[in-house]
Amino acid sequence: MEKIRQQLAFFQKGSSTLHIVKSATVGDGIQLLSLDEKIFFSHYFDSHKANYKLEKFVPASGAATRMFQFLNTFLNDFDPKMDTITSYINKTGEQNLNVFIVGIRKFPFYFQLKEKTKLLFPDYNTFTRDQKVHAIIYTLLHKTGLDFATKPKGIVPFHRIENQIFTPVEEHILEAQQLSDGSEKCRIHFTISKEFQSDFEAIVSKYPQVEVHFSYQNESSDTIAVDKKNRPFRVTNGDLLFRPAGHGALIENLNQVHADIIFIKNIDNVSQAEQEQSIFNQKVLAGKLIYMQQQIFDYLHKLQAENINVELIQEVKIFVERQLSFSLSSEFDMFQSSYQKEYLIKILNRPIRVCGMVKNEGEPGGGPFLVKDEKGQVTLQIVETAQINFANELQKNSLKSATHFNPVDLVCGVKNFKGQKFNLNEFIDHDAIIITQKTIFGQPIKALELPGLWNGAMANWLTIFVEVPLTTFNPVKSVNDLLKPAHQPVFEP
User: Fold this and answer.
1) DSSP character at residue 160
2) Which residue, 172, 355, 356, is CA-closest to 270?
3) Cα–Cα distance, 162 to 169 (Å, whole number)
4) pLDDT in tens, 436-455
5) Quick check: pTM over 0.85?
6) How far is Cα 481 from Cα 469, in angstroms, rounded to an integer?
7) 22-69 pLDDT, tens digit each
8) How far apart are CA 350 and CA 398, in angstroms?
9) Most buried pick, 46, 56, 203, 305, via CB within 10 A?
10) What residue ranges in 79-176 does DSSP mark as E strands?
11) What does the H/E/C string look like for 207-252?
């Protein structure tokens, strides 16, 4: 009941927005590593990884519905007896359909799709071209066919090499194997929907050398929905409506991962042509994290001593401000040394994340910013568009001036300098909620999303932003993205 009261209060208050100071840029919040530095950190990771328990964490419960949205619209609106494909495209302006048709043979599921289509439509060979296209799309999406639009994106075929098909789940497993030191099973954790667990298990069973864990978004993290007047919404039988609270709820799942170093990537950000580059950059980020974490741990051990000198305090202060972009109060130098020591320990003794950031070339999504909290503390944060106050001209201009965005390529250190695991729930900004507008049973409702996994849920972590190449970002938002070079075989079979 206490959670429900708190959530209802959030609806009354409205979505919280952040006080953005400015966008993080190269040299001012984002580090740009030279090739020599990248090679150093990659080798640093390889030479130290045997000392750490590594695990990859991949949110994988999202359905592939949006991937096939334009094809679903086509099925609903197209009459194969009355319309032609050309007239439909001319009428709707839907060029995505044309791209799909032209590239049909390059999709990894093409042969499976064609075979299934002929089973569903025995007269397929007598069809006109337009009827064949309609039959293929019907088979791709209908529950009697491949039913891809209702399946999790993670189990949809993304890549093909000769006769072998690879799903995103498999691509992440292959990446995890190459990050591992090979001395023991590599570990990977997928957050999934319980109803599809058998599908995931069937895929991972082909990789017995990998230790795979599954978890579900905890139903206790679901949030109450309200109507337009912020009253609890009830379904037809009178029950209150609770909804999944977005990926921010997965901080609970991440908190249960017992590893020293955790890699986080989205399920659809995999590549065939750019896999080697992607793995190299993950190693760079991980090497940077281990290197910085060792410095932080060294300082924390020194600060634990009874007698510490002024020189050490100043050294740590400079490190915190320059290396961690954590601005200290202008009054810090006036504090007693005992308070300075405790304050620096409090700052450094937190989970740490190194986040890859790519140059902004029009892709949607959150980005890196310097943000001021209620106490006036300025820190690096990943900010979603929904967290920005567009009524404030300065805030809006900060978004326009952003040079980079968040591809969700994080490496996290979740243990303290004594080797104890942090309780990640202690580092959440619980006010960083987002209110969204939804429709259910034809009625408008408001839904509440918990602080995002890499936004508010990690707001009080130590954060380092590093520029990574755009080639490491290859998401599949539309099925047609699978036709891009990053998802096609390097050499055509």
Assistant:
1) E
2) 172
3) 19
4) 888 887 888 998 888 889 99
5) yes
6) 18
7) 999 999 999 999 999 999 999 999 999 999 999 999 999 988 999 999
8) 28
9) 56
10) 159-161, 164-166
11) CCCEEEEEECCCHHHCEECECCCCCECECCCCCECEECCCHHHHHH
